[in-house]
Here is the input.
Amino acid sequence: MNKTLILVVEDDKPIRNLIVTTLKTHDYKYLVAENGSSAILEASSHNPDIVLLDLGLPDIEGVEVIRKIRTWSNMPIIVISARSEDTDKIEALDAGADDYITKPFSVEELLARIRVTQRRLTITQTDEQNKTSIFENGELKIDFMAGCTYLKGEELHLTPIEYKLLCILSRNVGKVLTHMYITQQIWGRCSDNDIASLRVFMATLRKKLEPEKNGVEYIQTHIGIGYRMLRIENNNIG
Here is the structure.
């Protein structure tokens, strides 16, 4: 039995049954909640490793469930919703969701998103346990204590804003960060000008991290939403 405990929050019975059957087939432990109130109760009582959350719940909006959970826990939350508008995705991600899957979805996609979240969770837990000041991802290395960044063993010369951006992305590796979240972290505000500046700084940072056109991609752009640092497996290098 997989040790990962997943809370499924879904009021649509056929979809809930599909998700539960998928988890059961792949030996995941799971809990079920059919509304927002039950979701908050189950999350606080059992502290699941991952939450799969529908937004359109009968009693409380899913975004509000995210906000309530975020007042006391950083447990990963993957939204599964029929709402496909960028505004809905941005609202959920800004509230604290870690990922967003749009219905209809494939079982393979759901399992892949869960695996990615598991890997990020394992890495985060390991980092916390080791209390390390070194971040490594593929051939990228950040020494937070020294404030230095290296790529393939060579030091990268980054501007203060580029370095801060890189730190924000690396501390949330695998997670989509919205424009609003990033600009708030960098400048303490979010305006159209700030988002335009962010795109410029992100472009210069990517040129330094990804100098080869067909090389490793460290930063993924989510158009209209934000950015995500990808976790690079060693066997994907070279």
